[in-house]
């Protein structure tokens, strides 16, 4: 299968709407509805759970179960404190970066709808001191243009409201996708494209395929932990993002040598089952799909860990997408890598037969 035509115009249109929609950890439902609507023609049924993980299923009656997975949530903030003069102080919901916050526009999600605001910051003229402060959780604040706490509350804003950035999707230099929350709604997009290709190419799988878009990864892999217990899969192929280490100020001796545009990244880690990883590597080589390798030491830090150590052990592997500027509003990936991750997962699925393939002692 050639990667030249993997992403259709309709695929890119869905990707743009999916990324532009806010889907903060704990509040993923609207994004999940968009994703399920796109996936619906390509699956037999859906599973959802109490916290919002969504699963499209092909061959739901098959006893052998294979998961392909991404996560749906994006980092965000919570309103933590409202001052008497109407300013908001925040705490993290996931790994939000305090250093990029000053001067950013924000959306505060309330029952009355979106309330707009900005992260304020003192002017440079007032900071020319021997020791100027850096942004940190204790001093970044949001200004809604209000003068009192009562005005803030009248807008529907209260402690616990979730806050997101409104930055939207764009394409740079024809082949770089840029947006907030590419980590990891791009994963949800890629697994949906795998399902589309299986449907359009009329592929029949000898197992049940569970296309899983998990919630709450950004605060500890929680959605994957829950849905793994529900599905009880035999195999799980997870996709997430990793760092493009050619980015300035990243040490390759620490983070590895990875670059966007050079292909999917196949992980080496204790949670990655050796035979499943080897199947993926062999598939990449057989199909001339470029790939990179990454050693992740004790834990991958992704939903791979949650699936691998569930239900007495699930053969699991991780295929990552190289990304620049993780946990900022300008996360960047290469279109070729997106297509090659899709291609690699698709071809790997066609090589899976049954659990005996991954028996450790055979």
From TrEMBL:
Cofactor(s) annotated in UniProt: a divalent metal cation
Keywords carried by this UniProt record: Aminopeptidase, Hydrolase, Metal-binding, Protease
Residues that hold Zn(2+) 2 according to the record: 183, 218, 327
A Pfam family it matches: Peptidase_M42
Keyword Cell membrane in record: no
Listed transmembrane segments: none
Binding note for cofactor: Binds 2 divalent metal cations per subunit.
Coiled-coil intervals, chain numbering: none
UniProt-listed GO biological process terms: proteolysis
Entry superkingdom: Bacteria
Active site annotation, chain numbering: 217 (proton acceptor)
Ligand binding (Zn(2+) 1): 71, 183, 240
Molecular function via GO: aminopeptidase activity; metal ion binding
SUPFAM superfamilies, alphabetized: Aminopeptidase/glucanase lid domain (SSF101821), Zn-dependent exopeptidases (SSF53187)
Family of the protein in this entry: Belongs to the peptidase M42 family.
PANTHER family recorded: AMINOPEPTIDASE, AMINOPEPTIDASE YSDC
The protein, known as: Peptidase M42 family protein
Species the sequence originates in: Flavobacterium aquidurense
Lineage: Bacteria, Pseudomonadati, Bacteroidota, Flavobacteriia, Flavobacteriales
């Amino acid at each position: 299968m050639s990667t030249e035509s993997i992403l259709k115009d309709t695929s890119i249109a869905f990707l743009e709407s999916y990324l532009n929609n806010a889907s903060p950890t704990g509040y993923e439902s609207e994004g999940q509805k968009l994703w399920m609507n796109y996936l619906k023609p390509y699956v037999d049924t859906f599973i959802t759970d109490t916290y919002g993980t969504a699963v499209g299923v092909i061959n739901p009656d098959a006893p052998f179960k294979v998961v392909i997975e991404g996560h749906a949530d994006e980092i965000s903030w919570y309103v933590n404190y409202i001052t008497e003069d109407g300013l908001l102080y925040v705490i993290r919901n996931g790994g939000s970066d305090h250093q990029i916050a000053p001067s950013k526009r924000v959306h505060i999600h309330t029952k009355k709808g979106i309330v707009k605001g900005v992260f304020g910051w003192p002017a440079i003229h007032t900071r020319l001191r021997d020791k100027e402060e850096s942004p940190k959780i204790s001093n970044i604040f949001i200004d809604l243009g209000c003068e009192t706490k009562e005005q803030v509350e009248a807008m529907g804003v209260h402690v616990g409201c979730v806050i997101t950035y409104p930055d939207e999707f764009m394409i740079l230099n024809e082949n770089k996708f840029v947006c907030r929350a590419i980590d990891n709604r791009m994963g949800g997009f890629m697994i949906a494209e795998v399902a589309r290709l299986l449907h359009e190419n009329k592929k029949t799988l000898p197992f049940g395929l569970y296309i899983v878009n998990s919630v709450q990864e950004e605060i500890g892999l929680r959605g994957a932990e829950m849905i793994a217990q529900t599905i009880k899969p035999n195999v799980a192929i997870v996709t997430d993002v990793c760092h493009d280490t050619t980015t300035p100020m990243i040490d390759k001796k620490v983070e590895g040598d990875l670059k966007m545009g050079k292909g999917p990244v196949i992980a080496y880690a204790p949670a990655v089952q050796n035979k499943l990883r080897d199947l993926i590597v062999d598939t990449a080589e057989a199909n001339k799909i470029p790939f990179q390798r990454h050693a992740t030491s004790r834990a991958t830090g992704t939903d791979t860990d949650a699936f691998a150590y569930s239900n007495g052990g699930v053969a699991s592997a991780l295929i990552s997408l190289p990304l620049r500027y993780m946990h900022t509003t300008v996360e960047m990936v290469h279109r070729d890598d997106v297509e090659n991750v899709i291609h690699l997962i698709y071809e790997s699925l066609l090589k899976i037969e049954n659990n005996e393939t991954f028996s450790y002692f055979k």
